[in-house]
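anyone seen this seq b4? input:
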Amino acid sequence: MAGGGKETPRQRMIGMMYLVLTALLALQVSNAVLEKFVFIDRSLQNSLQISRTNASFSIEGIKGSVEKNGNRADDKLVLDRANEVKRLTDEMIKELATIRKDIEDKTGGYDELGNKVESKDYDKINLYMLGKGEGGDGHAYKVRPKLNKFLEDIIKLDTAFEKEFKDLKPFCKDPKDIKEFANDPNQKDKNWERMSFENTPTVAALAVMSQINNEVAKVETKAIDILAKRVGATMIKFDKIMAKVTAESRFVAAGTKYKAQMFIAATSSTLSPKMTSTAGGVKVDQATGVGEVEFTATGGAFDKEGKVKKTWKGSITIANNGKDTTFSVEEEYTVVKPVIDVQAAAVSALYLNCGNELNIQVPALGAIYDPSISASDGAQVIKGAQKGMVTIVPKSAKVKISVSSGGNYIGDKEFKVRLIPKPEIEVQAGGKAINEKTGGPCPRSLRAKVIADESFKAFLPKDARYRVTKWKVSLARGKRLITEKAASGEEANLSDIASQAQSGTDRLVIEIEGVERMNFQGTTEKVQIGQIIKTYPIN
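predicted toks r here
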């Protein structure tokens, strides 16, 4: 027989004793070894008494819970089923006790020291338990169907029992159906009856009977425990012991002290605790009875050190022998204001209508940083390819950037917004800037070039792209205008003007009328540069 589901240490010990017992039966062993079966038998008998006593206590607990809950119909049905489990178990134990008594009587019983007299009596056990010849009419063959029916009758009492005891069916398994003996050449071809009692000395047969009794009692215990949980009648058995450590902080600066507390914590596999917290839901591991509280810390009124103390409260409710008991806990924690780290070419101020690239990080959040960045005063926010990378396009004299992570607000950063510095206009002849003071020969062509502010261009090169869109060149003689040439690009052809120019009396008057800037997105805007006039003497 092999059990399924979760077992207590005592039940696992009994199962191990059964395996040892069965293995020893296959050997021809000495009297000294056989005598040890007396101790095994007594240990199993003691375990049987403990198991049945605990089952009776559990039924009393169920009865108390039913009365406490007002004798509700559903609860009374649970009590009725628990009593029926006990009745079926009583009958099966009584049947097994009769067989045990017959074995003792037919083989000589015990002496005054409690030792079996005929410790190596194989024939009488074979005849009584297996029958004559090939057998089939011995008591083992008669009790097997009763044991199987016992388990089936228990399972029929409640739908939950089918799942709990599915691995136990049938109650009496042949060796080929037991993992430990399926490949054993000495056992795999036998049936349950022969494996248990063939060529078995009396003391070992009695130990086998005790083991069968314990398997029956184990079914009773499991079934009643399942029913008891429905009405909150389980008794706490602290069978899971853990070592725990709580530290004041997992982060310690060099040169400071680390402090922690070590202690033993205990829980029970029979508990199904209900846990709540003011911080949100509690995830309870039913296997260990340990709850996990997890929530995202929010900020508040931070002090000058960027800290704010907060608390959360929790409750743990367990059923203890039919009564709900609630334990309360309160935990204080400190929220530290995360530092928003902004990396940019010009971090102290941004430029108006320009694509200011920022790398906004919150180092304290590490891998869980999931940024959401917004800006005030109509500023445009363009999300970058990497986490925390954004482009800010301000539209007013200041802008406040708000940072959140995973939907939780982190903080703000405020920036002043600079106007774009005016560019300079340089008029060139032959690739060199003209000398407005000394002048020179009349050039055949001129180029009007826009020179961006060096600092602005270094910070935002994609926003510092200029060109002259409209300008004109006039030939003046004294107070008279001789001729003029309009230009719509950077180059102006002055061949017709040069043919009329006179050295020493004439001059070129250059007027810049329109300048455009192309921004980081490739769109253009007019640049307000005011009136720009340059004069070039012809000599």
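Confidence is low (pLDDT under 50) at residues 1-5. Residues 240-334 form one domain. kinda curious what u guys think
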